[in-house]
Specification:
It is globular, with a radius of gyration of 17 Å. The C terminus is likely disordered. The protein is built from 3 helices and 11 strands, in the order E-H-E-E-E-E-E-H-E-E-E-E-E-H. The protein is an alpha/beta fold. Strand 9 and strand 10 form a beta hairpin. It is 21% helix and 28% strand. The two termini are 22 Å apart. Helix 2 packs across helix 3. The longest helix is centred in the middle third of the chain and has 17 residues.
């Protein structure tokens, strides 16, 4: 069983990390169900394990937290739906690449509920949208903006951290970092794309898409002991 939990208000980032780690440990020990936890954070910048100091442009704008998830710098703040996925990857096939692809599929399927085409890009982490409503780039190619970020960590084959989708955040807050180390593309949101979407709409879409991606015809396999 996968439990779903939605927080109201803003959840401080350090408290969220502590709660995720505790829940992931409990899942690994078999004393808790898997959990998808939906939150919003106060404005923060977070640094993944590949973050470069040069990509933190404005150091004193918002609190900066070092985190052990994969990836580089990212922003979390009001108007952005963060979905923390504490899932038993050991019971879901022990295939990390496949799991990350499922997270991408989850975001893409969620966006599709709003008729937004989210796409992967080789060498660029996250989910992207083509901006045909904007002038092309100087080289003539279409402009592409990032709408969702993905960053996870596994411990004893249980995941934590997860995905974030820009619903209606203040996009200027991304100016204080180089998001995910990518300088030649922008950032967008569902509202920026012209969609009058509420957070509750996104939550419903996330749940529908999760069922399709993670719980369709997939059968859990028996967990095998051993570290991630």
């Amino acid at each position: 069983m996968v439990e779903w939990k939605t927080e109201t208000g803003l959840t401080p980032y350090p408290e969220a990390v502590a709660a995720m780690e505790a829940r992931a440990n409990a899942i690994a020990q078999g004393s808790a169900d898997e959990l998808v936890w939906l939150v919003e954070h106060p404005p923060v910048y977070t640094a993944g394990t590949s973050a470069k100091q040069a990509d933190l442009i404005t150091r004193d704008r918002f609190p900066v937290f070092q985190t052990r998830r994969g990836g580089q710098y990212t922003y979390h703040g009001p108007g952005q739906r963060v979905a923390y996925a504490m899932l038993d990857v050991g019971a879901r096939g022990r295939d990390v690449r496949r799991f990350v692809r499922q997270l991408e599929d989850w975001v893409i399927a969620t966006l599709a509920e709003f008729n937004v085409v989210g796409e992967r890009r080789t060498g660029r982490v996250g989910v992207w949208v083509v901006r045909n409503d904007r002038p092309p780039r100087p080289d003539g190619s279409a402009r592409e903006d990032k709408i969702a970020a993905i960053g996870v960590r596994l411990r004893k084959w249980v995941s934590f951290h997860g995905i974030s989708i820009n619903v209606d955040p203040d996009l200027s807050h991304f100016d204080g970092i180089v998001p995910c180390g990518i300088t030649d593309h922008g950032v967008t949101s569902l509202v920026d794309l012209g969609l009058p979407v509420e957070m509750a709409d996104v939550d419903m879409a996330l749940r529908t898409a999760f069922s399709r991606v993670f719980e369709g015809n997939e059968q859990l396999i028996r967990r095998q002991p051993g570290p991630a």
